[in-house]
Amino acid sequence: MRPFFIALFTACCLFMLGTACAFFPEQGIAVGSLTIRMPNWEQLSGNETTTPTEKMSVAAVPVAEETIVTNDTIDTVVVKEPTDYDYMQPFYASLAASDTTSIRVVHYGDSQLEGDRMTIDIRRALQKRYGGGGVGIIPLHQTIGSQCLNQTLYFNDVAQAVNQGPKRYLAYGPKDKRRENKVYGPMAQVAVMNDSLVAGSENVRLYIATYKKGTEAYFNRIRVLRDGEDSLVTVRDSTWQYNLRLQGKGDIYGVSLETDRGVIVDNIPMRGCAGTIFTQMDRRALKHYFQVTRTRLIIMQYGGNVMPYTSNRTQIDNYAKRVRAQLRYMKACAPDAAILFVGPSDMLTSINGNKQSYPLLPAMDAALRETAHNEGVAYWSLFEAMGGSGAMNKWMQQGLAAGDGVHFTRKGASRAGQLLADWIMEGAKTK
């Protein structure tokens, strides 16, 4: 097409459009439910102006249901980050029923808990306020002494030494103690009463006697955890000692001294353990125990055994990932329970001939806290509660820590346990 005709066609289109804009009604022309409008010449040419007194018309925009509009302003709803006490809510809520039924707390940890250390302070604080009695679960054959009770195992009335008694399998410690089927029970150990017993020693007697001190002194029932099903032995309320006789063969996962109401607190130490063995334990056995005992709080206190072998952030991250897997596993085994992870204490190592805190301890503490919170788990920093870096030196000077700068003395464990118990009880006040 020639340029002349193109120009002529364009001029005609503009003339027709201008004519329509000039004579088209400003209010438009209604056609059925529709209204046809045309822009005026000022709008079309881009020369339209608005005086300060004129108001621009704004088309209505649908408002999302989540948005609150008042007086032409939008109210922003601030979402509050959950606190550690919020993560503890399933436990605190369960305490309302402690006057009619029993509520279980299971305290797992490493050697810092041996002899019922730290756990005893938590137990006494909870039982003093919410009732309950007994020391909770104990192994059939105790190899580490307790500050709460005397326990002796007899075969045909012959007391068994630490290296005697039934064969034991452990989910932690020496690898030759592992069990092929991974069924250990809630204490991560099992006593096998079959071919491991001396011939003719089917008559097994467990003598138990508390020291008649504290809230844990008395119990009114004994729970025997064994393969197949549990056995409950009811005794009088003021019982503080008992001879429990067992006959036959089978697996014994533990014996629990408890009451039928109030709070029961288990002490389960695992020497040398980093807390990464739970996924190696039979889910059904754990789930059964947590369910029948109404476990509403699981405390996992680990990290100390990892620090001496941690030299960089990558190793911290790897450990945190392993802890995350344990937390997820335990939440699956105990869906009705809150989980509280307790990080490592301050620990000393030799740096240039001086005893100082491990340089990466703050990073480890922070990584474990972040991991716990990401999994909806409460976290309590023993490291910070003690005073942070260098605190262990002060604790040693006060007779609260052993000379190795790692372990607490009995007095120090009591101080640490009381700090943790106070934190738990403080949360109970706010719920």
Give the tags.
431 residues, alpha+beta, Rossmann fold, 2 domains, six-stranded antiparallel β-sheet, five-stranded parallel β-sheet, 11 helices, 21 strands, 26% strand, elongated
TL;DR?
The protein has 431 residues and is an alpha+beta fold.
Task: Please explain how this structure is put together.
The chain has about 425 residues and is an alpha+beta fold. The chain folds into 2 domains: about 80-130 and about 260-430, Rossmann fold (3-Layer(aba) Sandwich), CATH 3.40.50; about 135-255, no CATH class. About 30% of the residues lie in helices and about 25% in strands. The protein has 11 helices and 21 strands. The strands form 6 sheets. Strands 6, 9, 10, 12, 13 and 15 form a 6-stranded antiparallel β-sheet that branches. Strand 19 and strand 20 (about 355) form a beta hairpin. Helix 5 (about 120-130) packs parallel to helix 11 (about 410-430) and helix 7 (about 315-335) packs parallel to helix 8 (about 360-375). It is elongated. The model is unreliable at about 50-70 (pLDDT under 50).
By helix and strand content, what is the structural category? Answer: alpha+beta
Assign the CATH topology of the largest domain.
Answer: Rossmann fold
Query: What percent of residues are in strands?
Result: 25-35%
CATH class of the largest domain: Alpha Beta
Helix content: 25-40%
